[in-house]
Amino acid sequence: MFFSQTVPSVRYAAIALALIHRSYLDRDSSARVKDCSLDNTPLLYYNRAIQLLLNQEIGDNTETTAITLLVCYLFTCFDQLAGNYVQAMKHLRGGVELSRKIDNAILNNNNTYDDAGPSGTRTLIGQVARQIRRLDMQAVTFLVDWTPATIQEEALIPQLSPSNCAFRSFDQAADHLYILVGRVMGLHNMDSQICPTSKISASPSSPKDIILRQLETWSSLFENMLQQGSSYETYSETYPIISLLRLQHTIAWTLLSSYGPGREMEYDNFLSQFQQCVALAGDVAAAHEQYSGSLKPTFTPEVGIVPVLYVIGAKCRHPVVRREVLSLLRRQPIREAVWDSISAARVVERIIEIEEGGFGEGEMSQSMEQIAVWQRIETLSWMHVVSAARLDVKYTFCMREGVHTESLMI
To answer: Which residues on neighbouring strands pair with residue 404, listed in sequence order?
Structure first.
């Protein structure tokens, strides 16, 4: 708030974000996923913020760093809401690079960001840089070719050890979990890029096995933290945090554990985990609804329940579980970074139509086993054409050659 009042570039960026967020919240249901920037006013403030940022004094001082990081973060949020996902990722990359310079300066005992400037400015740098690193780590959930900077720089990654007994806070637990989720998605994305039919090795020293052990360690430290801090159980506001972290841990473990010779059929062995995830996602969604007091659209630049629900809808072939996923995705318009619940629901609906298409019009499969391996979609990606309210989809079938493309109207 201080920078918004005292620094013109931050003020204009904040106003631009506020205006486009208001537009997003006020859209009627028929235009939920259409371009929310039809009014040029937010863009005018956005462009003015860019001009002011470019015209600021060049230097390595603490305040300049704080302003640049903060505006970069606000721009990332703005372009996510506007559906300008490529531009949003450019802003995020810029913020990541600046955060890396800060980290390197700290590692090299450079006191530029420790001693210069007021303590409030240094605190802001730490908070925004940490948030940008989180977004960097989470970007692997929607960008196949994204490699988080934190994963590249092992020196900055805190190591998990059972000897630590328990996490000190939810923030610490979340930071560790985001790194592990990033590693899981990195392996998954790399495997899909190299060959859709290849599978990650399961030898004791393989990356898969190492990460699975780290996920088990994370779970032990997290549950120990909850047991040691009995006060966590008495505050209702912590329930959604606990549920969300458990949800993201469970889906990461399931996604990694499901690699095996049965390919898409392997997912059928993890029905109980998928059901657990749907229940946890339902808890988080209910908490969102209770907090906001309505089913109006919500937005966060962080990743929450939408990608998890999409993975379940795409990979869990149990007919009831899939319909529960659709119900949650359709219940309230949620945008998490570039993930949009309405778009994800439309894609899951199409996957169901394709995989269950042989059961007659209006009918659904009675069990997972009824969907043969060659009927199952193995890889799928889509691009959201915001201006046309359209999804351009590409997908492949398991054990079948060829890439299929089609467009879905939202």
So the answer is: 395
- Domain count across the chain: 1
The DSSP 8-state label assigned to residue 196 in this structure reads T
CA distances from 279 to 244, 276, 321, 331 (A): 11, 5, 10, 15
pLDDT tens-place string over residues 19-69: 999 988 887 544 444 444 457 899 999 999 999 998 876 655 778 888 899
* Residue 318 belongs to some domain of the structure: no
Residue 142 near residue 381 (C-beta atoms within 8 A): no
Predicted TM-score (pTM) of this structure: 0.86
116 occurs within a structural domain? yes
Report CA-CA distances (Å) from 101 to 110, 133, 310.
11, 12, 35
Quick count: other Cβ atoms within 10 Å of Cβ 113? 22
| The dihedral formed by the CA atoms of 287, 293, 298 and 304, expressed in degrees to the nearest 10 | 0
In a domain, 189, yes or no: no
In a domain? residue 57: yes
Task: Decide the pairing of beta strands 377-385 and 339-340.
Answer: unpaired
H-only helix segments in 195-261: 207-228, 239-257
Domain that holds residue 57: 1-142
Q: Which residue has better confidence, 161 or 303?
A: 303
CA-angle at 177, arms to 172 and 179, nearest 5°: 105
- For Cα atoms 257, 343, 246, give the angle at the middle one, nearest 5 degrees: 35
What residue has token string 């809808």?
Answer: 313
